[in-house]
Amino acid sequence: MGTGFRRYSGIWSNARATAAVFITEDPRAARQLLGEKEVFREIEARASEEYFGRARTDRAETIEMIKLLLDIVGDLKRVNAHLAAAAYPILKGCGELLPSRLKQD
Known about the structure:
Elements: H1 2-6, H2 11-24, H3 27-55, H4 60-84, H5 87-93
Helix pairs in contact: 2-3, 2-4, 3-4, 3-5
């Protein structure tokens, strides 16, 4: 979980970016902020893969530690999603949002 987990220290820069997006209503910055959601999804996926890989081979103590870190990663991902939500009204106002993420039939 080394480098991926360290990426979550970027939550503070995302908090600052959220404040800037909220104040400036800059669509480019709003898009960048929403892009961070994908980065966090990828980190969570890698952390999950690592957890399940180690669960087959490591000691119980190591597995418990990794499980705790995985929980933290998930929590930080949710915090980031809340921060990124500041971008939605700005992008909606510019007509840059799709009506739904659902695949159309």
